[in-house]
Amino acid sequence: MMRRLPSVAAAALLAVALAACGGGEPGPSAKTTASGPVTVTMWTRAATQAQSQRLVDAYNSKHKNQVKLTVIPTDNYQPRIAAAAGAKQLPDIFAADVIFVPNYTSQGLFLDVTDRVNQLPFKASLAPSHMRLGTYEDKLYTLPHTLDLSVWFWNKDLYKKAGLDPEKGPATLKEFAEQATTIQNKLGKDGKVSGTFFGGNCGGCYVFTFWPSVWAAGGQVMNPEGTQSLVDKSPMTEVFATYRSLYEKGITGPTAKEEQGPTWTGFFPKGQIGVMPMPSTTLGSMPADMKIGVAPIAGPDGGQSTFIGGDSVGISATSEHPDAAWDFLAWTVSDEAQVEVMAKNKDVVARTDLAGNKYSSADPRVVMINSLVAKGQTPYALKFGQTFNDPQGPWLRLAREAVFGDPSKVVQLNEAVNQSLQQ
Amino acid sequence: MTQITTARPGRGDHAAARRRSLRGFAGLAYATPTAVIVVTLFIAPLVLVGVMSLNKWPLLGAPTFNAPQNYAKITEDPLFLDSVLFTLKYTALITVLLSALALGLALLVQERRPGVGFFRTAFFLPGAVGFAAAALLFYGLLNNEVGPFGFLGVKWIGTPNMALFSTIVLVLWRFAGFNMLILLTGLQAIPVEVYEAARSDGASRWQIFTRITLPLLRPTIALMLILSITGSLLAFDQFFIFTNGGPDNSTVSMVMVIYRNAFFRFDLGGAAALSVVLLVVLVALNALQLKVLR
């Protein structure tokens, strides 16, 4: 019970001890060029492990320098980075959920790579939202690593059984609700199939799956500076109301309210859900015999958008091998890595100029997902994690009141969101 | 020792002095490892937390002095104030229930009878499971989708009261055996003659329990209470892993707020200030308990 309390202190103690013997920032590395191959260390979170692992394996098989990848449980990633940074024990390279990047850059965790990025011939076509969040005070700190877009998946087999057109997914949030209701009414009697599902006790899930409907309707969730929340206004309130009515009518599956996040994508692949928002990265790992339709997330009356999530990757400010680290990072966004590693596995490519490649054209769903990179958004806020992802943060309370509790409290709870954003 | 040496004057003086200095050196050699460990693992972090609590302490880079801001803002954090109330409520519930259950179990397996070893082992066994692992185990067992107890339709961690109830069941399961063991050592230390004397005086079972067992068990109960109260006030694993502070922040303990401030909000100075306050309260509380219970 007491173990973790002193760990704050222990980490900090280590920081002081190491700072005393380390002697501060390492200069531009002469070591890496002077002496043979180096091994650089890299951390990533479990959610995007598959993509990182494929990139690292492909790089290691063709290069003298080696990358050693460590995968950390997604829920523990942020605290682990914080503890490692405090102890000056960050790896050479670390990937991070793109929405946390502004906070990390403002804390000085990443090395400035502006000059290196400017030398890349395809700089202009790197995923724009990832690049925007990796820019802090006009300097560049990160490259896009993986792109994970929220899209609607629908189960064509269930649609057929329920008498819906299996080739026609929802084009508006209203159609989404209607189709989910039909599935529930026709197939949900025995409790094994539900119309739809969402992570009702998971702040990050709400953000990823609900916000695109707001953007598709032409609305916003925050001001561009990420200091003022707009989630107490239309169209956010309409989106909340739609999901609220789905829950009240028992169309969302009984555990939606309790779902804390770890298992929210687990029900669709089992064939238990008619239609729901899902991360695009899961498309490659769906059961081979399952027929799945993919549609862009829409607003109440139409429009299209997506939450461009995923990871950015940068060199840590305390790395002793920045040149070797950059060699790997630059390779991960090269044509070779993007097409032969990412696109080959149905992943979204990190460069807009490679959206239509030889692999994606074989699957129209992948072409559609790639095309959403230009339409979607990644919200920017310095205090994003503690406001929206943290289970004790103010957004989760607000969203749960709006969907399961008393929607009239939303305006008041939005003040807490604003406070957290402005801290 | 000193008497013997002073009794033998002359050249023995010299040898005694050498022996004394050797003994002093040996004592130092014995104490040093412990002293080093205590200084590096306890005193140094303690001083550092104190220093951190007076500064704005970034993840990387130099701290800036900002006292007493980290302390002043404690009262402005509604999440922390709520967590204080919740932690006190949890501590009161756990202490009462855990003591009662542990005492009951200890009395059950107190006497040497055939098969009692089996029950002692069975009651103590959950204590051999790591607490974090136990919390995860309960998360799986009571999960409505995959857990064997999920089919009952009870939302084990779905409402604030149920989440607290399920957590208490988890903690009782995990710690009752350990507390039973503490009480058992106390029970075994009560001389059989006292019981025999009471019985020959015609005391009833209840009288024996209230007049002999409980008073003689007092120091052991004090130890158990101190361990239980301190442990409950520092509760973290069960709420972090099992309920995740939910639903709706209804099960957020004080240490969880400290953890959140340090590792999610990167406010290391603020987290250090909370730790210092918690430490002071705990020391005061333990001193008070020792005084009352002794």
From TrEMBL, chain A:
Keywords: Signal
Annotated transmembrane regions: none
Signal peptide residue numbers: 1-22
Entry annotated with the keyword Signal: yes
Pfam families the UniProt entry points to: SBP_bac_1
Domain of life: Bacteria
Keyword Ribosomal protein: no
Protein name: Sugar ABC transporter substrate-binding protein
Species per Swiss-Prot/TrEMBL record: Sphaerisporangium flaviroseum
